[in-house]
Amino acid sequence: MITRNPSLTDQVKAHIKERIVNDEFEDGRIPPEATLAEDLGVSRTTIRDALGKLEHEGAIYRKQGAGTFVNEAGLQIKSRLEEIWSYEQVLEDHGYKPVVRVLTDEVFPVNQDTAGALGLDKGDEVLVIEKLFLENSTPVVLTRNRIPAALLEEPHRKRKNLPIYEYLEEYCDRRLNYYVSEIVPIAFDADLAKKLGVKRGTPGLSFVEVGFDQNNDAVVQATSYFRDDLLRFRLIRRKAGA
Amino acid sequence: MITRNPSLTDQVKAHIKERIVNDEFEDGRIPPEATLAEDLGVSRTTIRDALGKLEHEGAIYRKQGAGTFVNEAGLQIKSRLEEIWSYEQVLEDHGYKPVVRVLTDEVFPVNQDTAGALGLDKGDEVLVIEKLFLENSTPVVLTRNRIPAALLEEPHRKRKNLPIYEYLEEYCDRRLNYYVSEIVPIAFDADLAKKLGVKRGTPGLSFVEVGFDQNNDAVVQATSYFRDDLLRFRLIRRKAGA
DNA sequence: AAGTGGTCTAGACCACTAT
DNA sequence: TAGTGGTCTAGACCACTTC
Predict the structure, then answer these.
(1) CA distances from A227 to A132, B148, B187, B205 (A)
(2) In a domain, A203, yes or no
(3) What is the domain range of residue A64?
(4) Chain segment A35-83, per-residue pLDDT in tens
(5) Closest Cα in chain B to A53
(6) Contact state of A63 with B214 under an 8 Å Cβ cutoff
């Protein structure tokens, strides 16, 4: 399949973003919305939608009555937590060339915790994919994904090193829409410490999350573990409703 | 000052949200946008903006061509990390009745780290406010805020137990716009462990963040420490640009 | 084919900032 | 007072789901 060209708004957004990173705006001042609309031959609404997304990403900020400006500080933020979609991409954003190693790739009976998260019954099965992300043979991230076996279109055992959202799309015909993630600090136990190459008891971050598809069905449960010394997450926090 | 009534969009959002929590929609199905617009006497654009915010919060989800639906799972999520604005509110959302204890409230010479974060020079001074948030004499959160002394309109020493965003508004005439937060897992050292009432070495979460006002000036540096056993953060992660 | 959400337009008026 | 972003309207057409 794979149809659909980028929307006008997204094209405008990309265009403005490029002009920002190329530093084409005098004093970091972005032209008035009306001017942009006329220059690009689109409505002001389209411009505003594009600018709104850029503002949300932290690339620009707006002052009512004054203008729209480049946010130099915001531009520096890589791999914003709210927008992470694959750890390959995260590591690339941090300047690494990631290697993915599949440690586990098997169907197991579901445990109680996962059954609750994914709405499965006792006795159902899940495909468990454990992956280690490395940079130059140094482990950085470990992920464990659990996908209901019932979602698999056919039993096959290939390409498990795909990002999970691509795997779900290709082999389960499900499109990931969003994750609900819980942030849990831990001290690495012996198993995790060994796999991540750190001392047992080292403080680390973990995410415990559930991914939902566009029908709002839970399709994957994931737990991830990070080496804080090599990868640190940032996010932008705003007042509710803004 | 304090002018401005809620926008039409926000009123519509609140109205729909209330109908959602009151479970007024048959089968969790929300009426078509055109119907809502007619019923409420506003344009479809206004309805869409309101629904967009509710979708972003996770309260509803939309399926093109099918309809708009209540997201039962999303409604359960309290204190979403991206929208935290005061820890008093966070604790209330978790069903606690918080007590705030001010531990430190003094002006110090700025250290190098804070100077860098806030764009200050060596020799400048900052007001340091350390606060402990408790529920029934059980500590849950410890925060350390650093505000440039130059922002203080007058030297005074009252109401330091206000939420920082209110303090900044009232005594510095600055309105907090957003935070850039870094998530850092730690093992509590002796001092933190004592203040939070846990064993030294317990794994915990900390945020290291900088708050910006509406002119995009850095106005506060904050570090916060949490007892993971009492308070756990969630957030919704989406594909970038969505 | 009918219904619903997604995108886009053109324009009006308001609120706020700068000068 | 002029300029700029913020809100809102009315309507057109498209993409997708459902029947």
Answers:
(1) 12, 33, 14, 14
(2) yes
(3) 8-76
(4) 999 999 999 999 999 999 999 999 999 999 999 999 998 888 887 888 8
(5) B241
(6) yes
